[in-house]
Amino acid sequence: MQFDAIVVGSGITGGWAAKELTEAGLKVLMIERGRPIVHGEYETEMKDPWDMPFRGLGDAALFAREYPVQMLNRHFTEYTQGHFVNDLENPYATAPGTAFNWLRSYQLGGRSLTWGRQSYRWSDYDFGANKRDGHGTDWPIRYADLAPWYDKVEEFIGVSGAAEGLPQLPDGRFQPPMALNAVEQHVRRTLAEKFGRCLTIGRTANLTVAKPDEGRSACQNRSICARGCSFGAYFSTQSSTLPAAQATGNLTVVTDAVVEALDFDPRTRRVTGVRYVNTANGTRASATARLVFLNAGAFNSVHLLLNSRCEAAPHGLANSSGVLGTQIMDHASTLSAIALFPQFSARTSFGNRPTGVVVARYRNMDTMDGAGHTRGFSFQGGAVQANWGAGKREAGIGTDLKDRLRHPGMWRMVLVGFADCIPRDSNRLDLDPVRTDRFGIPQLRIQFAFGKEEEAALAQAKADAAEMLGAAGGTVIMGMDRPGTGGMAIHEMGGARMGHDPKTSVLNKWSQAHDIPNLFVTDGAQMASSACQNPSLTYMALTARACDAAVRMLREGAI
């Protein structure tokens, strides 16, 4: 099969690549390793607990055996197990001393069906961090390069949020924000008045205003997004970018196909296409194209480049620098504080809201005030009211469960710290020399550990969270300062970083391989640093920008 472009992967960035390239008139093949899922045909979306064999909790023995990593993800339940991979069928290796949990969703739409939808712009505090403190390599772009592409992405996917005028968390093209509850409003006022810090509603890719021309309705506030959303209220490949790409008539989609390698012509120094395996029957096929975009997910894209080694590139494609696979990252995250707010027990809150709150970064900006660390951290979380609480029996409410469920109880507020992850050469990916998967492809091996900077940041985050919630009148009952296992933030990135110098980076400022002009990597692999906010919006903006550049270069004959 011959195409103008091949897009490997159908998740958040793969959908954007397909949309942008097809709308530019290119004939595009999208290859997805997982099963097809049709928008609106989400098997468990509308099911009640009594419709599920295990009432939504799932078969504990099956989960422990086949989904041990996914069980640690709060979005993983009996309702959503079909959206996550079976670890036994999709193995990966870890180096000695490494604990890393790699959560994956192999299906049409990838993790766009299961992501948390938190959508934040990065600032120049983030794009300039590596140059400022000397960790990693300098980004070849700054906020001004990406701002118009943030605009484009936000306007298309729909991001609800409140403008705050913060230089460290730039405002965007927002739909109306969701509401803070009473406790969150109180804590917001306290943080502003006593600390000069900002708590705001989470900026989420859930529509608060319908987009009927795209067949997308406003959010129903069910907060069961990870099951799939037939309303199209949250952004996913199926609800948004895939229909746009299909409408052009220029898109071909192949599912159940694992790309095992890129084909490379050493004479022209170009990739010519891809080779893939049919996961149903093990047969192999290939496709050719003038452009290849890797959007398989950060680690999978690096895996593919490493496994495409050949005589002309014995250490992997696009790896003349020797840095392919290095400086992988994931946010260092932990539960920084939980506080009780019994004084708000008379204030009730019913219903759901598919987002929380964010306390924007405030450390190591214009003043380097971090204790033992040079980067930033932020908080996500929110306040919720228990179904029942202490004192209800004394208040005359009986011990009957149904009776107590009718009387909401004590409020509690949670702040979860997310700290910037330092890019390190020691955190890396390579191919396991012995183990392969069921198709004979070498397993990806992960070597990863957080360091003293992340530990220091989370220690300060714990102290700060307790101070802030205490100042708001909360009773802090616990907090932690140790990062969770790598991978549990589900923000793995790096391995094929952008940079100015081909000797120290894999990609240039257009997400284009220094070594191979018609190869672009626009998922999380391209990231040169992690910042402390969610990266998905930045991935999408970088993808749209790279597609524009690739089409221009193709038309000019530069690639």
Could you characterize the architecture of this molecule?
The chain is of the alpha/beta class. It has a domain at 159-232 and 332-419 and 450-485. The chain has 11 helices and 18 strands. The protein has helices spanning 12-23, 60-66, 124-127, 129-133, 143-157, 182-195, 237-247, 298-307, 401-405, 452-471, 536-556, and strands at 2-8, 28-31, 93-94, 159-160, 174-175, 199-201, 251-254, 257-265, 270-278, 284-294, 332-341, 357-359, 377-385, 411-419, 428-436, 442-447, 475-478, 519-521. The strands form 4 sheets. Strands 1, 2, 7, 8, 9, 10 and 18 form a 7-stranded mixed beta sheet that branches. A 6-stranded antiparallel beta sheet has the order 6-12-13-14-11-17, covered by helices on one side.
> How much helicity do the residues have?
10-25%
Strand-residue fraction? 15-25%
- Described by its quaternary structure, the protein is single chain
Biggest sheet features: 7 strands, mixed
